[in-house]
Write a structure and sequence with these properties.
Distance between the termini: 20 Å
Radius of gyration: 21 Å
Strand content: 5-15%
Number of helices: 3
Helix content: 55-70%
Number of strands: 3
């Protein structure tokens, strides 16, 4: 994401004489596309520590990491905390999309065409 900001800043400075306000919709659209591409991968990685399955030895282990015992291994709590924090990124993206969808009818009824950019 930082790379997108840097590329955008350089492009706006060189091609559009630093008119960042006019080019903000382009940045937002690009960030949305990047986040959408990574959404499934990030969500998959984030929920992996939460997927505990029974193993043949009777213990419950993390499906993707069979050496990690759920609730007993020293690594598992850290994995769960990291997964929950990582899950905030796709959930935040979905929340922003839901907010835009909620605002759309009102903005269009008031003729706010800039909302679409």
């Amino acid at each position: 994401l930082a790379l997108v900001f840097i590329i955008h800043a350089c492009f706006v400075l060189l091609k559009h004489s630093g008119r960042f306000r006019e080019r903000t919709p382009t940045l937002i659209a690009t960030l949305g596309t990047v986040l959408m591409v990574g959404l499934i991968s990030i969500a998959h990685i984030a929920v992996a520590p939460l997927q505990c399955v029974a193993s043949p030895n009777g213990l419950r282990v993390v499906f993707s990491y069979p050496t990690v015992i759920c609730g007993e291994s020293a690594d598992h709590p850290g994995m769960v905390i990291g997964g929950v924090f990582l899950l905030m990124l796709p959930l935040g993206f979905v929340a922003l999309c839901a907010a835009a969808i909620h605002q759309f009818p009102s903005r269009m009824s008031h003729g706010d065409a800039a909302f679409l950019r």
